[in-house]
Structures are given as C-alpha cells and as structure tokens.
Design a protein that fits this description.
With 347 residues, the protein is α/β, with parallel strands linked by helices. 54% of the residues lie in helices and 7% in strands. A 5-stranded parallel β-sheet has the order 2-3-4-1-5, with helices on both faces. The radius of gyration is 23 Å and the shape is elongated.
Length: 347
C-alpha cells in the first residue's frame, strides 16, 4: 500500500536527527556512502534527485549533504561546530537556499525563477558552494521544469541543486537524465523498531506495532510514536476487527465513517486492517506468537484463525488492498466499505 503520514503537530524527523550527522541516519547506507565518496574524491555533481516517499528521510539526507559541503572542516561529516554548520542548523545560511512555494500543489515558473534561476549567477557569499534545496520538486509545473532545465544543463561551477521528490517520475526525462538519482528504499522493520525503542524510548509492544505500520518509513514511525491519535486509531481498528462477526455491514460502515470523519485517516485504518489479518494468517500457518505484530491480541487472532480459511484470509487481505485503490480513485466511500466488510464477514 501507499504510505501516508497523516498525524499532525509533530517535530519532523530531519530536525530531530540532523544534529547526529550521517551516523544518526537509520538505513540508506549506500546513499550515504555515495555522497561521502563524492565529497572525499571531489566529484560532487551539480544536480541530484533524492527520490522516496514522504517521511523517508530526503530532507535529512539533503540537509546533511549540504552542511557537509559547506563545513569549514572539509570532512565527510558536518562538524556541527563551525560558523557554517551553526548557520545551517539555524536555517540562516546564505549559501544554502531552500526554495519555497505558496500553492501546496505546485511550484510555478515565477517561484523557480526568482529563488533559483535568477539567483544562481550570484557567487557564494562565504562558502565553496551555492546549494539549492527544492523540496516537493515533483510539483514543479512543466513550465518551471523547462525553465530549470537550462540551469541544470549549464550550471556555474559552484552550484549544487538538490531536488527532493516523492515521485521522481513526475520530473521530465530531460531533467532526470542530467541528475544523479538517489532512491531511498524502505528501512528494515528491525531497524525501525530499534530506532523507536532506543532513541524514542517506546515500549517493545508499541514499537512492534508502529514499526510494522511504518512499512520501512522512519518519518512515519516517528509520527506514529509522537501521536496520541495513533494509539486511539489502533484501538479503534482492533475493536472493529474483533467485533466484525457480530456487527452488520452497515454498522461497520457507520463505525469506520465516524472514526475517520474529518481526519482523512481511512487509509491508515486500512493499513492496520492488513497488519491484523496478516497476523491471523501467520498464526494459522505457524501457531507461533513470536513473529506477530499484535502479540497482545493473541486470543482474538487465534479465534479468527480458527474460523477463517487460508483462502478466506487471502481474499480479505486482497479486498483491503482493492478498497484502498478504489478510495484513491474516488469511488463512493460507503460502497467501497460495504464491499470490504462483506468480504470480511463472509470469510
């Protein structure tokens, strides 16, 4: 399923972890190695694309790379102590420019011209490089991308452009072909769980659930851990699943609609549903508790494993994925949920 990060009012992961340098990054070893080798060998490219879903760590890696390039110590890690690093940490570095945009859905040609294209000809004020970080680069309009292309084709020697994109495929091939593409992959569940337990001091059981929910996305794991809403959301999802057999389809649809009203978190409920039914399927196959995500729900999981067949459980999991796709395609909410809960009740 596509990952969502829907919890509000939490500290972004990159702001919490940037002080730890590259050593504080969870996973992404190959990308870090590539960036540090480029610095060590003096072969820094003029343009990079950091690709990966929201919360994967694109901002963190781009920020650390920019800080390292400008650091007065000229090492492969930012020292965090020099004037350059301190300015970067306070988001006040004159030669590290974050391109902003007013419209949430797009970055227009005027914004990219005023903040990057017209500025790139001015030499760095105090640093070896002039670095531009374009977050949400996949929201650049076609006109903005075409305007940016000339700068990427013929950049000044001191310019480094970092494009951060949830969906790099939205960028023109003429742009991607001229950039170094760094794709952030999901981090292993164990690394995510260890991060939650060791750095955020989350108890074992909660960390297990949050790591599974994060699906390899550290930002998503941190947001779940920081959010009281996630605990409530998990409890609601489990209540529905445990009592589904005794409720009518319409009662179930009403319950989900009420719980997800105004919060746009129906996709998070679907992710939790998948996690629970995978636990049921795993327990049915192995009769073991150790590898379950919802270990504390073993009695309900055991009961469901007895009443559902392997084929039935696979149908349910497939139906949840289908519901996810239909909701993204704007199919009627009630109809999608009715079909899903019919499958859950029948199997």
């Amino acid at each position: 399923m596509t990952h969502r990060v829907l919890f509000k009012e939490v500290i972004p992961v990159e702001e919490v972890e940037v002080m730890k340098g590259f050593d504080g990054v969870v996973g992404h070893e190959e990308i870090i190695s590539h960036l540090q080798n480029a610095i060590r060998l003096g072969k820094v490219s003029h343009a990079y694309i950091f690709g990966g879903e929201h919360g994967a760590g694109k901002k963190l890696l781009a920020s650390l790379f920019a800080m390292t390039l400008q650091c007065a110590e000229h090492g492969i890690e930012p020292c965090m102590k020099c004037s350059s690093c301190r300015k970067a940490l306070s988001k006040n570095h004159p030669d590290i420019i974050s391109v902003t945009h007013e419209k949430p859905g797009s970055i227009g040609i005027d914004e990219i011209r005023s903040q990057l294209i017209s500025d790139v000809g001015i030499r760095p004020y105090e640093s070896p490089y002039k670095i531009y970080i374009v977050n949400d680069a996949d929201k650049l309009t076609l006109q903005a991308q075409n305007a940016l292309l000339k700068t990427i084709e013929e950049p000044p020697s001191y310019a480094v452009i970092l494009l951060l994109a949830d969906n790099p495929d939205a960028l023109l091939p003429t742009i991607t072909s001229r950039c170094v593409l760094l794709s952030l992959k999901p981090v292993g569940d164990k690394l995510v769980k260890d991060y939650l337990m060791e750095r955020m001091h989350i108890p074992d059981y909660q960390a297990e659930v949050q790591a599974a929910f994060a699906q390899g996305n550290i930002g998503r794991a941190q947001m779940a851990a920081n959010s009281a809403e996630f605990a409530e959301l998990t409890s609601n999802a489990l209540q529905i699943l445990k009592h589904a057999k005794g409720m009518t389809v319409y009662e179930l649809v009403d319950a989900v609609r009420e719980m997800s009203r105004e919060k746009d978190n129906i996709y998070d409920y679907l992710d939790l549903f998948v996690m629970w039914f995978r636990d049921v399927l795993l327990f049915k196959a192995t009769k073991e508790v150790d590898h379950l995500v919802f270990k504390e729900e073993i009695n309900s999981i055991k009961e469901r494993a007895i009443t559902s067949s392997y084929e039935g459980l696979e149908k349910i999991i497939e139906a949840i994925h289908t519901a996810d796709g239909r909701l993204h395609a704007n199919v009627n909410f009630d109809l999608v949920m009715e079909l899903l809960f019919l499958t859950i009740k029948e199997n």
